[in-house]
Predict the structure of H+/Cl- antiporter ClcA.
Amino acid sequence: MAQDSAQQAPTSAPAAPARALLPSILPALVVGVGSSLLFVGVSVGAERLQGVLWQGLPDALEIGRYSVLWIFVMLIATGIAVGLVVWLVPGHAGPDPATMGLNAPALPPFVLPGLLLAAALMLAGGPSLGPENPIIAANIGLAVWLGRRFVPGLPSSLWGMLAEAATLGALFGTPVAAALVISEALAGRPIRGLLWDNLFAPLAAAAAGALTTDLLHHASFDLRLPPIGRPDAGDVLAALVVASAGAVLGMCAVYVFPYLHSAFQRLRHPMLMLPVGGAVLGALGALGGPLTLFKGLDQIAELARDPEGWSAGQFATMAVVKLAALVTAATCGFRGGRIFPAVFVGTALGLCAHALVPAVPPAVGVAAGVLGILLAITRQGWVSLFTAAVLVASPVVLTLLCIASLPAWLLVTGRPQMQLRPDGTPIR
């Protein structure tokens, strides 16, 4: 018996020694700070341009800032501006955004200026997309290109992983999100050594990115909703129902996604696809109001400041309009990500549940709604749980979300994703 036990092989690879991990710290910190600076630079530039386009210019022309006329003018003009970038700038602002996710390929350096310009114009002009996909793609491309040039001894895959982690840390203001995303990505591939050894350098990059962003451009995700006490059976039921409803609503958008993309592709030219998409977004913005424009982060804070300020019908209208705007913007060619506008959709859905059934606490409704929508649109469980939990910053809500994620995940797993292959078919 003792001999058999002694002959048993270890079930896990040995941990990496400290000397193997130490050389990765400096590159990780450099990538983390650089990725954050690029994100902050694009964000601040877009915010300044947004102020000119949506405040200074309409005031000078004596037109209402968010009048129906100005919404149409700005969305169509943004479509024309981004269309010109996609058409004329070298690299055409990168691949079709409908085929891009958070895990972007390393794009050639000449593509990145056009991609960043298209993203900045989109953020300022009002389409319902966030900065995450183009910023991650740009940071990965820069990190891989500079890393190969100046530190050729490190593998390209490491530079890409560092840049992705750093950008996620910068976007969310915490390295936890990056650690969760990278660990989920590593789960699908063979790894050498312990998981924490593989997360060591990405976590350092994410921490550097998050800290740099917090120092330069702090943005809190906490909506400061009324706290909830000890959860009861009603809270559990509310979380289960709202998260499942969010997953179903999100899957409706996922199933529409390839058909709307195919319709825009029939226009064949970016100077047709993007202005037409801008016109559709203008109509949706006129229907849903100014809160349904832009990436949605500032707008969810406005919703959360007054959960009783809109009726259930108004919340439902904003959720549906925002989701339609997200799908339109992502399929007609605007460069941007889907997480931030999806958070708005989930927030509006959760507050709609609270308006319909006042016994549903706003914090529970919002967190569960965001969880369900993100599970359907991103198909990334850790990101969905983390984002939903950080909005309300409550350990009690985290427990409810873990329970609510189970039926919501069953509704979305194995079904098409909101990302297409180059031939236009959805990824499963």
